[in-house]
Amino acid sequence: MGKAILLLPCLLAWCLASPFQQHGFLDFIDDMTGVQNDEGSAIEELPMPKATKAPRVIPMPRQRHDYPVCPFGCQCHVRVLQCSDLALKEVPANIPPDTSLLDLQNNKITEIKEKDFQGLSMLYALYLVNNKISKVHPKAFLSLTVLQKMYLSKNALVEIPKNLPKSLVELRIHENRIKKVPKEAFRGMKNMNCIEMGGNPLENGGFEPGAFDGLKLNYMRISEAKLSGIPKDLPNTLHELHLDHNKIQAIELEDLIRYNSINRLGLGFNQIRYIENGSLAFLPNLRELHLDHNNLTRVPAGLTDMKYLQVVYLHSNNISQVAVNDFCPAGFGFKKVFYHGISLFDNPVNYWDVQPAAFRCVTDRMAIQFGNYRK
Prior knowledge:
375 residues, 14-stranded mixed sheet, 2 helices, 6% helix, disordered N terminus, mainly beta
């Protein structure tokens, strides 16, 4: 009975004690280690031996990771920043410095300022197609030391931007208002492989002498311009040259003398009436020739000597006859590769007037395209 009376005050004290309130996960650790928390702990009244007492656990502060902020409205992926079709009037700020591809197509950007691309030393490709860019600061591209692809097509540029990155491999700048290619425009660009500059009001006199010196281009297109003849100072390393949709009226003997590496030559949609004999002999590696939509009255001379020529487009001209030796070598002449495409439709020549032997060096009859002549 006496023991029960002594236990009664202890039970009352235990019942009146405040309930445990957990404020965080570490509250459990505090209780387990005998560390006093805000609400107290009963375990602290039973101290552990000093040799076995666990050390106090101090929570480590949460580390903060500073990730680059994606410009408003843009989509950020791994090293890719896509900001196209946003009606932007200027290059956005805070571009992540590790950006490798920057897409700013289809906006309303009017000017490239000096610091727009500052610090983007890892940028590999820059797309600025279909904006309203008319002005580029001379130092705008100085930070782009590894840039290889630059697309500036469909803008309002009146000149080629100064100080283009020396690392460029591909430049597309067609459909602008450029009338002149200065001598220093591409200086030092030893890696340049492709230039697309059609759709500009370029005339033959618009190329300064030496404008392409040092370039080892593989591909060039100057279509939809105002050329009256084949430019004579283009790189002699070209494998593809496209000059379609110009005002070229003739191909003279010296026009192609330096382009003996060309495999594909595009001269369609011009006003060519005359091709001087021997002109095509300077293209021994030619495989594809586009002369459609011109004013030719006969099959060009010299095709029979082109041993690798496989495709010839001659449709939409004024050719009225095809001789038996116009395409294939005469007698025991040798052609290494047979034709697999000859187009002659939309010409005033009747297929029944052409001798079958005229196409003896063609792979099969389906490779020859005739059609009704309509004017």
